[in-house]
Amino acid sequence: MRELPNKLVDRFGRSVDYVRLSVTDRCDFRCVYCMAEDMTFVPKPDVLTLEELYRVSQAFVELGVGKIRLTGGEPLIRNNILSLIEQLGQLDGLDQLVLTTNGSQLQRMAGRLHEYGVKRINISLDTLHGRKFRHLTRHGNLDQVIAGIDTAVATGFERIKINAVILKGRNEDEALDLVNFARQRAIDIAFIEEMPLGLIDEHDRALSYCSSDELREIIGRRHTLQSLGEPAGDAGPARYFSMADSPTRVGFISPHSHNFCHLCNRVRVTAEGRLLLCLGNEHSVDLRAVLRSPAYTPEILKRAIIDAIAIKPERHYFDNSGEPDIVRFMNMTGG
Ligand code: SAM
Ligand code: SF4
Q1: HSE on the CB side for 283, CA within 13 Å?
Q2: Whose CA is closest to 244, among 262, 230, 260, 227?
Q3: Closest Cα to atom 3, ligand 2: which residue?
Q4: What is the C-alpha separation between 266 and 252, in angstroms, rounded?
Q5: Residues 6 or more apart from 108 whose CB is under 8 A from it?
Q6: Are the beta carbons of 48 and 72 closer than 8 angstroms?
Q7: pTM above 0.90, yes or no
Q8: Is 163 in the pocket of ligand 1 (CB under 6 A)?
Q9: Domains of the chain, with CATH numbers?
């Protein structure tokens, strides 16, 4: 029997030590860049159970993964998600249990997330205007999300970061206000270029494209941004900048204009257990089939993961044509 490695390394020499785990494809919002208004979700029996999610996490951690981000859909609306988080918080070898959320449930959950070992949270917020917020999220309530952010700030997480997707003509005029919102709370903020994932008809992605360089220029007119260097594996694909008069860091995630595939250290697992090797490619392996096979053992699962890493593509190619490069939606992908 071949010995199992304690590290995942792909054929381009990149170590994979970070997994983004989608715990549901469902969401209480329908953000215009992420979902269509009418979505068909994965039938519940096809979604990984909490126990299966734990088994997958454990397998990855035993293969050297030190960071797991829970995402979705909206991870905090998954039934009993706190029980999974409590279990993951006790997983030996998992140094960083982190979460990306739309913030709608944070008022009631932030305390327990912190208690169970979540250290860092990313919270999505694209606008500070109630009506625009309702429009962009289709269902969201801005006051509830801001109250959630403020509860999280008061809870004392190691790091909180706002994620803002900026669309031309919709919210690019709010870039500075969003930076100020983050500065007032001494938290970080990252601006994300919209990615061509999933077919949406609410707007034309080619026309709404707003580059990170444009935003950096707008913010740079008001604040002197000091580069913190090129992205490192740990910081993800964002390029970060500091400001001399605030602890807030401003990041730019630029899948179109700056490609950092050569530093990629991550893979994604969709809610139905598909291991995606790259955000912008379809290469994947069905881990649910392994988990639900009568022959399942933790070792077989780990071997399936090791074999999958061997097909991780070198890079993605997004274009700005407005056409979806990838038909799956972001909520399926596990943002
Ligand atoms: N529901 C949670 C949230 O909104 O934070 C977690 C899942 S969401 C898919 C994760 C991140 O992906 C969010 O920050 C969201 O703004 C971003 N996102 C969704 N669709 C996107 C797209 N087409 N391009 C760029 N970012 C996108
Ligand atoms: Fe839901 Fe997050 Fe997608 Fe918005 S971005 S629809 S909150 S999964």
Answers
A1: 17
A2: 227
A3: 34
A4: 18
A5: none
A6: no
A7: yes
A8: yes
A9: 8-333 (3.20.20.70)
CB neighbour list of residue 275: distance below 8 Å, 6 or more residues apart: 267, 268, 269, 284, 285, 286, 287, 304, 305, 308
Sequence-distant (6+) residues with CB within 8 A of 180 are none
Reported as a single tens digit per residue, the pLDDT across 51-105 is 999 999 999 999 999 999 999 999 999 999 999 999 999 999 999 999 999 999 9
Instruction: State which ligand 2 atom lies nearest to the alpha carbon of 137.
Output: 4
Who contacts 229 (Cβ-Cβ below 8 Å, separation ≥6)?
none
Query: What is the pairing mode between strands 118-124 and 159-165?
Result: parallel
Helices (H), 37-92: 50-62, 81-89
* Ligand 2 centroid distance, CA of 330 (Å): 8
Non-local (6+) Cβ contacts of 4 within 8 A are 62, 63, 299, 302, 303, 306
Q: Distance between CA atoms of 315 and 318, rounded to whole angstroms? A: 10
